[in-house]
Amino acid sequence: MQDLKNAKRVVVKVGTSTLTYSTGQVNIRRVEKLVKVLADIANSGVELAVVSSGAIAVGVGKLGLRERPRENAIRQAAAAVGQCELMHIYDQSFGRFNHTVAQLLLTRDVVDDPKRRQNVTNTFTQLFAMGAIPIINENDTVSTDELEGESFGDNDQLSALVATLIKADALIVLSDIDGLYTADPQENPDAKLIGLVEEIGEEITDAATGSKSNRGTGGMATKIQAAKTAVGAGITMAIINGQNPENLYTLLEGGPVGTVFKAQR
Fold first, then answer.
1. Distance between CA 11 and CA 223 in Å, rounded?
2. What is the pLDDT of residues 75-98, one digit of tens each?
3. CA nearest 221: which of 230, 212, 229?
4. For the whole model, what pTM was predicted?
5. Rounded average pLDDT over 160-188
6. How far apart are CA 108 and CA 99, in angstroms?
7. Non-local CB neighbours of 35 within 8 Å, separated by 6+ positions
8. Positive or negative: CA dihedral 123, 126, 103, 179
9. If we measure between CA atoms, which residue out of 162, 203, 214, 154 comes closest to residue 180?
């Protein structure tokens, strides 16, 4: 699509399933490929912001926990450990391609408060001016809202709000499936990929119901909510499979990849 081909400022949301194995350990090969593609896209002149999930999963792996904890206090502790490791990985990986990253940890009250929201916007503006790539996540160590499913929605809604904040041209959500299907492809082999969504109506909402990500806390329904926020703000959004990061090239060249939600003008 032409909107994606002409995008100069792009938010990329990276899900837990893209970054890690089912063990909780980092998928090093995938992360290296993703960062290489993102660094190359940045080299082309596109301003990038990355909304990255994965802190809890990485923390679980780093701490050697057998499974994702259910208690909020333990999940917050895992997030604290995992966020440190996650930023170390991003810093090291982007550094190999001479790119500087910056960490921004947000909570809902920051985004909702006008003064603090402006402070965040000012920070983004300066980071882009300095050529840095912001890496954004919800601050799980001080806010349990997302852990309880009551805040941004597994960073999907956060990514849409960030895209709105920085006046992005496009939002790209990397998931563990190819895009939005007419039904859950894990349960219905006849489900078909929807390539373009021009209007998010009841049919689209129904198609998203019940489709879950394997390791994140969100699913397709939260991505549709993010799409409503993005396209309503005039931002084109796409959902693509994060298993092959090079699909980002095809998408930003206007090629047919995943599901594209057309911005409302």
1. 14
2. 999 999 999 999 999 999 999 999
3. 212
4. 0.91
5. 92
6. 29
7. 90, 93, 94, 96, 97
8. positive
9. 203
